[in-house]
Amino acid sequence: IVLSEGVEEGIHDLDGEDTLRVDTQEANFSFHINDRLVAQVTDSDFPSGEVGLYAQTFDSAHTHIHFDSLTVLDFEAPSLEASDQALLYQDDFTNPATGWPDKKFDNYFIGYHEPEFYHIEITSPQYKTTVFEPEKRTFSDVTIEVRTFAVSNKTSPDGDLAYGLAFRRSGDQYYAFTISPRTKKWFVLKSTPNALIVLSEGVEEGIHDLDGEDTLRVDTQEANFSFHINDRLVAQVTDSDFPSGEVGLYAQTFDSAHTHIHFDSLTVLDFEAPLVCSVKALALNLRTGPGTGYSSSTFLTKDDVVQPLGVNSDGDWIKVGMAGSEEQGWVSREYLSCTADLDQLPLALP
Question: What is the mean pLDDT of residues 117-126?
């Protein structure tokens, strides 16, 4: 059975070595050729097993294959740490000497949770707190990523909570991007000395339950912000009030009486525009497959923002996801204006 197939012009001729890589996580597989992602497949039939080498002839009468190396590593999801963006700040919270505070207050605790986390623990409902990077560096146009989760055995079994990133803090004002593992909601917040304002909110079913780690990412460029949860674009917001400031961590209780949040890492990189596209046409069909012969599931309108996910084998139709929605579909490439070249997209099937 062929689960997926395609063409990759970067495959070398005979005597030229190629590097093939497969990332396997539960039923999800990603396939790379010479560091280029070419496909992603989901199949749950074979949960584990051995690894080895494979060779096959079709109409070739004689074939001789050399294997130069075979490597197996623990699975690690691709992250910003492997990006070409310049690293401005990073802490994996394994070294208390980096200076993050370790203190106890009336309603909360902050400090290192050895061997590899920083934590915020809030011991009352209807309370929020932030902790900012110890050296108080100011950032403006950057990409910020945090890996975080709520600890179930130290969090009340009932009640809601939220946690995530705080950024562009100056004095008593900052923005925040938070998630709730119980309601699957996310929030973009603006904190002023007088109020906590919700700039945008929504539901993302991909947010994990307690004990499941999520990766939150914010791309900030002048007054424009893009928000991602586990590599999925969920919102874009424009607000010009806070042009720069510090970065840090955020935790909040609603009706949860006790909340314990672990932060696994915090990374700040030079800004690099995320790959997103806007619709150029006044009205555009979102189709169920790559071609006008496929049915239309909905309509997009001019300036709607979509996230490109893959491309068909001819390169003229793009599979996209809609910001803040689970819906996916196909649109003609000619009607999109994108922030970066689409030629590096993986192949996608209808």
Answer: 97
